[in-house]
Design goal:
Mean pLDDT: 76
Strand order of the largest sheet: 1-2
Strand content: under 5%
Number of helices: 6
Number of strands: 2
Low-confidence stretches: none
Length: 126
């Protein structure tokens, strides 16, 4: 297999590629243009995603911040906590500049302190 992509969308693992490919083959005649689509295969609008998340939050009784952006932040935080390197996170988050990705360390610094201390190159030298 030369590429792990479906319609130009790169899958980050073989497992994800085969699961996505199986889903597309089962539910669509061909891969849709967008990741999030209606039953008819048309692109879901930004408003449609927001309404879906709002309904999901209500149906599940979720309290507090629950939005696509909040889920993205949790995803990035989990990557940091699982010791992924900043460059990998930058690519996954599609940040154009590494400085944007680096800001997440500041946002979650209190939760990441142990991990940051463990990988501090100056640890034990001072």
């Amino acid at each position: 297999m030369s590429s792990l992509s479906i319609r130009g969308v790169l899958c980050y693992s073989q497992k994800l590629y085969y699961r996505a490919k199986g889903f597309v083959e089962t539910h669509f005649r061909e891969a849709p243009e967008a990741v999030f689509v209606t039953r008819e295969g048309k692109r879901i609008t930004r408003n449609g995603v927001q309404l879906f998340i709002k309904r999901l939050k209500k149906d599940l009784g979720i309290q507090g911040d629950f939005s696509p952006h909040a889920m993205r932040n949790v995803f990035i935080k989990r990557l940091l906590m699982n010791k992924a390197n900043l460059r990998e996170i930058q690519l996954l988050a599609r940040h154009s500049k590494i400085e944007v990705t680096r800001q997440y360390i500041g946002y979650f610094q209190h939760e990441l302190k142990e991990i940051l201390d463990e990988h501090d190159p100056l640890r034990g030298l001072l």
